[in-house]
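pasting for the record
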Amino acid sequence: MIPGKSFLYAMLVAALALALTGCRGHQSTTENGLTPVRLQLDWYPQPEHGGFFTAQMLGYYKAEGLDVTILPLPQYGSVAQLVSTGKADIGLSSSDQILAWDSNGLPMLAVAATMQHDPQAVMVHQSSAIHDFKDLEGQTIAAQTGATWLTYVTSRYNLHNVRQIPSTLSIANFLADPNYVQQIFITSEPYFAEQAGAQVRTFLISSSGYDPYRVQFTTRAFAAQNPDVIAKFVRASIHGWQQYLRDPAPANALLLKLNPALNPAQETYTAQALRDGGFITGGDPTGVQTGRMTAARWTAGYEQLKSLGILQGLLDPSTAYSLQFAQ
């Protein structure tokens, strides 16, 4: 995520909503005979969404008969709420969130993996005594409210004294405090820290054993009623991500216009971090795993959440995802 101020964010969202959606409503087909699909991002446009913008600008969605509108997340907005209430057709989230929502009576369905591994990480200063998750004992960490991964880490490493404070959209506190520990996206915040002269170390949350997918999801009802639309969207999005990793320049140029908080060097950093970490492809250079998920990973994630008491009700984890769309 990119540091920014609330006012700038509000202005950005308003501009993006106009640029990306225009004034038309959600129709059964467009004047060109295309099926409209609204993709709800989990933030404002950034290189971590590059594959979707590549598919849009290079015509991959149109080739599948889709007219895809990409929506930035409104300030204080909820992707789950926007998708569940029909204000968007497909949203971006993570597999652990899908399981939690489903167990709480919100029937969502993951249809493809955007990222095989989550790029969320913990960032510390190079001089920090923290070198692993077990070293978080007695520490204060700035993390997202309700961070499930932190519940997992404290349980796995038998930590009894970890204080959590709310994370912000800034690294200002990190830069000011050599003992600061912060949850970050490894594809973003290290760039800003290094640009500010800080030497940092990071360790991926997935290395703790807590490794959810980043996913594309919809409601079970929408998937049941529109399986062909979902299949076309997933197919074009996979193509878009494969192309973005080969050549991010076209999408990055568009993102610079849509999001004035970005800069070319940051975009280059993020695209390279996505490649180096194998976040989209799972480390397979052929890209064949892009979009794919496995039942084993979903079951393992479900068992982790169940053991932590995260899930609110009974749930068959196989109902929370479908493997038919990304093959």
